[in-house]
Amino acid sequence: SDPPSPRSPSNRSSRKLSEDEMYLSDTGGQYLDGTTDITRTVHWGVPTPLQKEAYTRVLMGNIDLSRLVFPPNTAGGTVESFARRALWDVGLNYGHGTGHGIGNFLSVHEWPVGFQSNNVPLMAGMFTSIEPGYYRDGEFGIRIEDVALVVEAQTKKPFLTFEVVSLVPYDRNLIDLSLLSPEQIRYLNAYYETIRARVGPELQRQQLEEEYRWLQKSTEP
Asked: N vs C: which end of the chain shows fewer Cβ within 10 Å?
């Protein structure tokens, strides 16, 4: 018989999931109203102190870049370090780009938008991913990736900011709240309110009660 596809589970090449490790799930799809590229990292057991701190600092970087207000015609490479600062503070980093443009029924990695030095300036209407991470070879990997729309900020002069359009809760089990600033916590609570308001009614409409209860629990303030 043919060997199993690398994308299919098999008794020879796969192992069981356990509650004692982290999982990084990179998901996406193309729909009539947009393309998604969303990564979440979860731990169903008891994370180590390093795992919890690293995850929280990745989340802090995601939030800091997502809520940033910046002048028009700013290149992504100019603001990229906001996603890394919380990791840099304790000597951690990641070895990939912080985000890429996302096309609608085009490439999921859509040139020329993004945060590298050779990307074009950010303009209202562009979609980009925001995806800081942290990885330890042979141990665990963390990435938190959202899709964000560049929008005009509520400032006197026409500045820009991001509106995160991915509506998926983060893993509460991995967040060390003591590391977050009051502004970061306010951002997180506002994001959770948006998820509840937009996703909750749709789950109820589809009568997905177990999923609705999970959503409510995962988006508590």
From this structure: N
